[in-house]
Each structure stands twice: as structure tokens, then as C-alpha cells.
Amino acid sequence: MEFMKIIKIIAIFLFTSAVSAETTLPETTETTQSQVIATTQEVPPVTTDNVASNPINNPQHAVLTQRVQERWTALIKHDFDAAYEFNSPTYREAFSSKAFKRNFATGKITWQRIEVVNIDLKDNDTATVTIKLHSIIHHLESGRDIPVASNSNESWIKVNDQWWYVNTTYN
Questions:
Q1: Cα separation of 157 and 125, whole Å?
Q2: Could you read off the pLDDT tens digit of each residue along the chain, which spans 171 residues?
């Protein structure tokens, strides 16, 4: 229940940000919901070229970028079983896949794609990954689809030579 309140607040924030960024909303929307759904099926790969702090020869950045992309590909496709497997072992010991899935509602926001903006390796085992999430907000009152992009920081840890997402969502 609390998660849904947070989603509503984020949607309102993103909507008001999108509206304030434009003087007027377009009269027609070029992107239909069916086009957005089709877009989510083909997620473009994130390359290490997108990562600002990534020297091409840094294998940690490449491996972590791949893990971030794979996790978000699963989330965008609503494959929450696959997305669950990217959570840290500690999270998966504490929360079931079923509990994890309860955190996601579909309908008002459609995730389209992500870009890895930056990777800040704190040490060999922890990192903060900044992503830009491209989404469509389905504004029910106007019937318009509003494209938005927002940055988010994700924490990742390395355990047994594998990068894991640190899920801070309370179930």
C-alpha cells in the first residue's frame, strides 16, 4: 500500500515536471499505448560508451553495465521473476519472489528504456550506478501519453565475483 503512494507521488512529480518544462502540451500524442508496449519489447542495449566515467578498458564497468541492463530489460518486460534474481543474496533470503512482485503496479507508467549515465566504483565490491529511465506517463484525465526521463541512483554490491542490485524497497 505504501509503495502505491510513492508511485503516485513520483507520477505526479514527473507529470508536473513534464508540464512545467513545456509551455503547452501537444494537442495530439504521436506515441500510442500500443506503440509504447511494442517499444518495451525491444530494449536497446546499453553500451559502455554511454558511461561517463568508464574507460573502455575497465572490465568492472562493462560487467556492471551489462548487469544493470539485464535487470532493467527484465523489469521493462514485466518479467519480475527474472528481475528478482538480480537482487542481492541478502535481499532474496529475506524476501520471496512473491513479495518482490507486490512492489510493482502496471498501467499508469510504462518504462521504455534506460541509459547508464555514470558508474561510481566505491571500491572493488560496491558501486553507485546512475541511470536515466525513459518512461511514458499515461495521463488519464487528458488521455495523453507524456514522455519523461528521470535520473536515479542504484546501489550495487559484488558478492562472490557477481554484481547484485541492493534493493532498498520495503516489502
A1: 5
A2: 454 454 555 544 444 444 333 333 333 333 333 333 333 434 444 444 444 444 455 788 999 999 999 999 999 999 999 999 999 999 999 999 999 998 887 678 899 999 999 999 988 899 999 999 999 998 888 889 999 999 999 999 999 999 999 998 765
Sequence-distant (6+) residues with CB within 8 A of 30 are: none
Tell me the pTM: 0.67
> Buried b vs exposed e over 116-142: b needs ≥16 C-beta within 10 Å?
bbbbebeeeeebebbbebbbbbbbeee
Contact between residue 75 and residue 144 where contact means Cβ atoms under 8 Å apart:
no
Dig out the grid coordinates for 157 from the structure: 554490491
The residues near 81 (Cβ < 8 Å, ≥ 6 apart) are 97, 101
Q: Does residue 12 come out as left (phi exceeding 0), alpha (psi in the -120 to 50 range) or beta?
A: alpha
Tally DSSP H helices, then E strands, for the chain: 6, 4
Separation between Cα atoms, residue 105 and residue 115, nearest integer Å: 22
